[in-house]
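Z., the sequence and structure:
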Amino acid sequence: MNRLSLLHVHNPKSILVVVFLLSFSLLTFTIFNLHTLELEKERAKVQMVAANYSYDIKFNLERALSSNYTLQALLAQNDDIFVRNFEEIAEDILPSFPGVIELAIVPAGIIAQVAPLKGNEKAVGLNLFESKTQSKESFLARDSGKLTLAGPLELVQGGIGLVGRLPIFKDKDNKESFLGFVLSVIRVSDIFDNVKIAQLEAEGVSYEVWRIHPDTHEKQIIFKSAHTQLIDPIVYAFEVPNNTWAMSLAPTNGWGSPLVFMIREIIALIFALMLSYMAKILIELKLAKIALESKVIQTTGEKNRLERQLKVLLDAVPDLIWLKDPNGFYLFCNRAFERLYGAKEKEIVGKSDYDFVDRQLADFFRTHDVLAMDAQEPTRNEEELHFKEDGYSGLFETIKAPVYDKNSELLGVLGISRDITARKENEERIQKLEYFDPLTNLPNKLQLRIRLEHDLNIVQRQNEQLAVLFIDFDHFKNINDTLGHTIGDDLLVKVSKRLTPLLRPVDTLSRQGGDEFVAILPSVSADDAAHIAKKFLQAIELPIRLDNNELIITASIGIALFPDDGADIDTLFRCADAAMYLAKQNGRNNYRFFTAEIQSKSARILSLENALRYAHTRGELSLHYQPQISLCDGKIVGVEALIRWHHPEFGMISPVEFIPIAEESGQILLIGEWVMRTAATMMKQWIDMGFAAMSVSVNLSAVQFHHAHLSKLVSTILDEVNLPAHYFEIELTESATAQNPLHAIETMNELSQKGIRLSIDDFGTGYSSLSYLKRFKVYKLKIDQSFIRDISIDPEDREIVKTIIALGKSLGLKTIAEGVETKEQLDYLKEQGCDEAQGYYFSKPLNVTDLETLLRAPEIIERKNNSSLQ
């Protein structure tokens, strides 16, 4: 009662008035300061604009006046102050001085020559010292010996102009030897057009350029905007010959925005009123709470007797037991309930769930309490309950029943709840171990097959389609190798959580192991499957931050459809897997449907992979060599070893087809070692046969380059064949070096220390960092043939080739162009200073016999090279 009396003493209306006045005053003060700050920023901006335009005006004016010095220099070449063909000379001079419309030579102050003469005939013979409008400025120029500027004044030709006078003396230090003037007439509007001052009006700024008249001391407007009412303008002064000009600027609509200020004040008023209204609501709620607490106290007293009778019995029960009145206020609870709520019974009784748990959970309790009372019979349900953050959460089995007195009056609801969390967790754990992936909690292989069998039965009966999506992440091994398997596992979990919401309840997403996932989509069309695949790809490639690393990963998806691609699980899986590999071969980060072509291609890949295992032992592999030519003298300075495979059944197989198979199957290491040993052995034989010194280069794939013992392997091969290291060159692609630049630098250093030359193949098509390129121990850059092919017609390719050659020179590297097929291509490369070239223009790749024939008659190559640029 004392608290109620205390609130009644204070008038709530006075509190509302105080809240309103304080909030409105504070907001008004803030808005005023903000308005002042914005006004200062706006004036500072206009000040900068005035400075910039003043500088441009002065610059263009000085440029125009410099025409006087040009005339002075012209007269210095003559003995007298007269220029023959003056008007023709002036016509050549005038375009160089924008704004100058007339030039004149004035011996002894009398105008003798004018250009242009048309329209100015009356000016000839005018004595400037006797002219009322010209005498003062003429005497000033003569007596000061300096260039002077007169005006603004109205021009005979129309408009407002300025006159620049420069005195001419026979002896510069002897002013008594005055010869006359050179004079230029400047149109003011041209000067201001050059500085584009009209843009200011378009930007909402009005302006005036003015001076104080030296005679009347009044403000004289030189140039101004259409809007002349400048409010509190910014004034910026600048010097011109024998005078000072000023520029005044101000926003056309005035400084600041009264409308914005008014709107802010209105918002402040509304906000202050809202705060006052909220204060009113809080006061009313406080009063209501106090009244409610008083009522609870009265009700609690009536229930104490019943509570004491039940207490001993209830405290002995391990389940949670409680009783609430019809309004949801606790009447009693047992010890187990006290432990759950973290409060004693006396602290719980008289309060509702809203005093102990969050509102959402309290609403949940209240809803089920009301349902139990309305049902007039016991109700049972399982509830997953989450209490306050530092409390308990778990799964409870709860029975609620209405309680009546002897007169059948409702006393409230009785609840008994048992914690079944541990039991449920054990049941779920057993199920998950059998049917779910422990990392992502997605269905595992066993669960997937069960669900797929069920879905196949349904779609078969309903004559519908079903899609199987095989999902494999691109280059996922690189993440495990560089960042560790823990990061890789976290990445898989996060991606799986992204994909799950994209599916329907009837769909299934399963992890098969590693980074492979399978999605089953029953009752969909091919277009639906493609749509889901696109959504998967978009979700997967979104950046993911893990352990201070921002990772971006892509995936390849293969799609197989039931019944078109297969009628059983294993066939559908096999077809989806084959389509996924086609997606990887077509650039990754995309999806592909299974087709008969894929089946045929998969069969060929399998056949080639098996045949490749025996190609070396059966002598089906061979090396061809393409000459590399020095563009300086046309001599053969090297050969590139190129592998060839001729199969007795399949015929000649392109390296483009079988090299990726060799890399994927792991056979590239054995094949690569054979290529290096064969090329080194052949080079040693050519040296012993007395052929001119040259080097042999071999290409290494990324798999070979990142092999742990590459340096040792190369050294061993060179030692076995007794070939000096400088005759052996290794070509690496940009992508191979960029996969792990630090490891690439280490490997290159080891090879370079052994004297083995290194070059970057296909340069310009990869993504080398220049910062790493400087640290690579590289001897040569090979310009990719894709840039060489169209340099005769494509300016962009020409510029790229030019840039690569310049880059090579700046880094001290040689450059070689591959794919040279025409004389025009060769001519351009020689013009840009390319060091070497290879291509069909000189020779196609040759077998050993044909190459030795060419080496014995190299003059054929030299003639082709020497004919270039002739």
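The longest strand covers residues 174-187. The CA atoms of residues 502 and 666 lie 37 Å apart.

Let me know what you think.
H.
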